[in-house]
């Protein structure tokens, strides 16, 4: 499909499933080298990162643990700049290497919020991984350790990303038609 309609908006194909998988494989290859012997905790940010995390962690070849938190900062097409924690972390991470897994980093507000929380829980190392990064929108002053692709500051859906809860199930990523 080259155009999909979600609610009242049209979206055009932007990143194919094949391109996504190539980026995920490249990230997994780097992580397999960098994190060997560390037994990291992959902390997946729900809802959006579930597809990316499943594909990424399936390709990770060493011991690891996986946990989830549910955060929200979007309403409709816009970020609210207010991060709400809907489901929290309920295990000790003291002394652990934690890899925060996000679907997309745009402003960096959500990621900044969870990084600060994880650091306050005495993790030995906090790393960040995202499939998609919007450098034009990024407002924070830290590096993201693992970036699958840099993209323009367009509103996108598919592969876990949504518009008001819809379109997460699409295998490809689509950008809004203006």
Write the topology of this structure.
Elements: E1 3-6, E2 9-15, H1 17-34, E3 41-46, H2 50-58, E4 65-75, E5 78-87, E6 97-105, H3 109-120, E7 125-133, E8 146-150, E9 156-157, E10 173-176
Parallel strand pairs: 3-4, 3-6, 6-7, 7-8
Antiparallel strand pairs: 1-2, 2-10, 4-5, 9-10
Structure, explained:
By secondary structure, the chain is an alpha/beta fold. It has one domain (17-153): Rossmann fold (3-Layer(aba) Sandwich), CATH 3.40.50. Helices cover 22% and strands 38% of the residues. The chain has 3 helices and 10 strands. The protein has helices at residues 17-34, 50-58, 109-120, and strands at 3-6, 9-15, 41-46, 65-75, 78-87, 97-105, 125-133, 146-150, 156-157, 173-176. The strands form 2 sheets. It has a 6-stranded mixed β-sheet, with helices on both faces. A 4-stranded antiparallel β-sheet has the order 1-2-10-9. A hairpin with a 2-residue loop joins strand 1 (3-6) and strand 2. Helix 1 (17-34) packs across helix 2 (50-58). The mean pLDDT is 90.
* Count of discrete alpha- or pi-helical segments spanning 4 or more residues: 3
Determine the strand fraction and express it as a percent band: 35-45%
Low-confidence spans: none
First-to-last CA distance: 18 Å
What is the architecture at the second tier of CATH?
A: 3-Layer(aba) Sandwich
Largest sheet: 6 strands, mixed
Within the largest sheet, what's the order of strands? 5-4-3-6-7-8
Roughly what percent helix?
Answer: 10-25%
Radius of gyration: 16 Å
Structural class computed from helices and strand pairing: alpha/beta
Topology order in helix (H) and strand (E) letters: EEHEHEEEHEEEE
**Strands, count:** 10
What is the mean predicted local confidence, pLDDT?
90
Count of folded domains = 1
Which term fits the overall shape? globular
CATH top level assignment: Alpha Beta
CATH topology: Rossmann fold
